[in-house]
Design goal:
Layout (H helix, E strand, L loop, with lengths): L1 H19 L4 H27 L4 E8 L4 E7 L1 H24 L6 H20 L3 H19 L6 H23 L1
Antiparallel strand pairs: 1-2
Helix pairs in contact: 1-2, 1-4, 2-3, 2-4, 3-4, 4-5, 5-6
């Protein structure tokens, strides 16, 4: 259950952090930072097993008629990437709090960033191809939102469309094998 919760925590917290930003930028930053800490806390009990060379698997019945389960897997490489995702995400949260002006919507940025982090965690911890493809496409969508953050800027919109097209084609290539 820990892997499932580690992946889902950023998705569940994204709207809450966006809402917190309405009252205070600092609360939004603390909320986003706490989300990273909670996701990391879900992974902590599994780290010892991973360091010992064991693999953690969590299986949930997803679509039984199709024989598909929601399966998350944590091994040494998955742990490394999960820690990188959460660590770099925490640094971006800290940086954005001080970098963005008071006019910029920090809550929206944090919500997009948390969606991206949850998607990336899903990519690196997925055990089957269908699940990987779903999280890959969520990564494509959230990266589009992040790149187009300054939506009034034509270059940001153009870059976001290009990133969406490239990652969308990557998803098709992934599906095609």
């Amino acid at each position: 259950m820990n892997l499932f919760l580690a992946v889902m925590t950023p998705f569940l917290a994204a709207p809450l952090v966006a809402w917190l930003a309405r009252s205070s930028r600092a609360r939004a930053a603390w909320g986003a930072g706490a989300t990273v800490a909670v996701a990391l806390a879900w992974l902590l009990p599994l780290m010892v097993a991973s360091f010992a060379g064991r693999t953690a698997l969590e299986r949930w019945t997803w679509l039984p008629s199709a024989g598909l389960d929601l399966v998350f897997r944590l091994d040494g490489l998955g742990l490394l990437f999960a820690l990188l995702i959460l660590g770099i995400g925490a640094l971006v949260i800290l940086y954005a709090h001080y970098y963005l002006s008071a006019k910029d919507s920090l809550g929206r940025l944090y919500a997009y960033l948390l969606l991206f982090m949850g998607s990336m965690l899903g990519v690196v911890l997925s055990e089957n191809l269908i699940q990987l493809l779903i999280f890959w496409e969520l990564t494509s969508l959230s990266s589009y939102l992040l790149i187009a953050y300054w939506r009034r800027n034509a270059a940001a919109r153009r870059g976001a469309r290009m990133a969406l097209a490239i990652t969308g084609l990557g998803g098709l290539a992934l599906l095609g094998g």
